[in-house]
């Protein structure tokens, strides 16, 4: 039962990218860097 507040991407928490331990950041494939989840 996830609560939907706004429609930000749950994978990257609306940032549009992940922090990667090995260095730098990686664009979130779920939202393609937008930080917004438009599905559902
Ligand atoms: Zn995302």
The arrangement of helices and strands along the chain is: EE
- Unreliable stretches covering 5 or more consecutive residues: none
Number of separate helices: 0
- What is the strand arrangement across the widest sheet? 1-2
Radius of gyration: 11 Å
The small-molecule ligands in this entry are:
zinc ion
N- and C-termini, Cα separation: 14 Å
Report on this structure.
This protein is mainly beta and 40 residues long. The chain has one domain. Helix content is 0%, strand content 15%. It has strands at residues 17-19, 25-27. A two-stranded antiparallel ribbon has the order 1-2. The protein binds zinc ion.
Entry summary:
With 40 residues, the protein is mostly beta strands. It has no helices and two strands.
Reconstruct the topology from this structure.
Elements: E1 17-19, E2 25-27
The structure holds zinc ion.
Keywords, please?
two-stranded antiparallel ribbon, 40 residues, binds zinc ion, 15% strand, mainly beta
């Amino acid at each position: 039962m996830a609560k939907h507040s706004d429609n930000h991407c749950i994978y990257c928490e609306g940032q549009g990218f992940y922090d990667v331990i090995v260095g730098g950041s990686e664009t979130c494939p779920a939202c393609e860097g937008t930080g917004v989840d438009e599905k559902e």
